[in-house]
Write a structure and sequence with these properties.
Low-confidence stretches: none
Structural class: alpha+beta
Oligomer: single chain
Number of strands: 8
Number of domains: 1
Distance between the termini: 72 Å
Number of helices: 3
Shape: elongated
Strand content: 25-35%
Radius of gyration: 27 Å
Length: about 170
């Protein structure tokens, strides 16, 4: 997927571009290619970006540590402002206050919009935080609870004998 040059998007018919996606993303390990569509619309001072994509990833259950497949589906939509980035003087700004209106995504109106990077971020947001193979997963079951423990290392045998002598 090639990045979209924003000035060309402003000159395009209907000021929009639709990208058909059927590819593996570089930093996202998936079993199947990411498939779907991404639509980017130019609205003067902002871009309206939306997508419907899906893929399958392999997850590891947090309880039993078994691997299972999970279908990632995202129907994301985002407004990205077109404005030049402010020059920051980091030499003296160890800490700085950030206003709520500064907490928005923005790109340069003369730059590129990276569809692949935006898509990667949207799919990462869809990865479940709590990964369970199923809701009734019992987790790892301890084995041999009734057996007496034998020392793993024979050098600990003296200490085990002393422990047994003190517990009697």
């Amino acid at each position: 997927m090639e990045p979209i040059f924003i000035p060309n998007l402003a000159q395009a018919p209907q000021k929009s571009e639709e990208v058909e996606v059927k590819a593996f993303l570089a930093d996202l390990e998936t079993l199947t290619p990411v498939r779907g569509k991404v639509r980017v619309e130019h609205h003067g001072n902002f871009l309206q970006v939306s997508c419907h994509v899906e893929t399958i990833i392999t997850c590891t259950c947090d309880r039993c540590l078994q691997q299972y497949n999970h279908r990632l589906v995202t129907n994301a939509s985002e407004i990205i402002w077109l404005q030049e980035p402010e020059a920051e003087n980091d030499e003296f700004n160890i800490e700085r206050e950030v206003a709520m209106e500064d907490l928005v995504e923005s790109v340069s109106p003369q730059g590129y919009f990276d569809v692949q990077e935006w898509l990667y971020q949207q799919l990462c947001l869809e990865i479940p935080q709590r990964q369970l193979c199923n809701l009734s997963c019992p987790g790892i079951q301890p084995q041999g609870q009734g057996e007496t423990e034998t020392p793993v290392d024979s050098r600990w045998a003296s200490l085990q004998a002393l422990k047994n002598k003190l517990s009697n």
